[in-house]
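Dear U.,

Please find below the material for section 3 of the report. The protein was modelled together with pyridoxal-5'-phosphate; I have listed the sequence and SMILES used, followed by the predicted complex structure.
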Amino acid sequence: MAAFIANGLEHVRMEVARACRDARRDPAEVTLVAVSKTFGADAIESVIAAGQRVFGENRVQEAKAKWPPLLSRHADIKLHLIGPLQSNKAKEAVALFDAIHSVDRASLCEALAKEIDKQRRQPILFAEINTGAEAQKAGVLPQDADVFLAACRDKYGLTISGLMCIPPLDEAPGPHFALTAKIAKRNGLKLLSMGMSADFTTAIALGATHIRVGSAIFGERAK
Ligand SMILES: *Cc1c(COP(=O)(O)O)cnc(C)c1O
């Protein structure tokens, strides 16, 4: 198990390095977020032992149950929330996570602003863009993004540092990554959270600064 996971991580690192070379980008600009959702402490420990320090989880409850003991053993780990966040969990999310990739509505902005102020913690925030305008998916529609980002800043006093997207499963990801990069650029945002196991090299070519990679490191998740 540990050897299998270390192999997955090593392979992903090599692919990241190659994609950066091809795109003439500095690998230091690309943060690998190892998505550990559904995996237990033993699997996570083997990835930590291989030097990985940034991890992603998609549920607040799962992260709260799993991570505090791991964080107390490894003080330098950064934890990212990559999944949808309910406003009533903003308090726990601000307390636990160093970055939140799923800011996508006014009520959540309000709850986050309040907790950031109260806890004096400043997680890195990404606004999620629903680039495929999929009804079942979270995120701000591309045509509403500029107004939403202005409201984050002017109405809620939130510092949004970047954008995140999850392209539709049945479409080529490139145009979705390019659209996300274009919206970020015109809004002066530097960070781009895009690319998963199947498409992180494409995302790097199109400017990703944060790639969220789960199964290519940990193996397939149990359903
Ligand atoms: C699960 C998940 C990932 C990782 O997916 P893989 O295909 O396993 O790399 C990335 N982003 C989000 C938002 C996820 O929920």
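For the text of the report, you could mention the following: The chain has a mean pLDDT of 97.

Regards,
Y.
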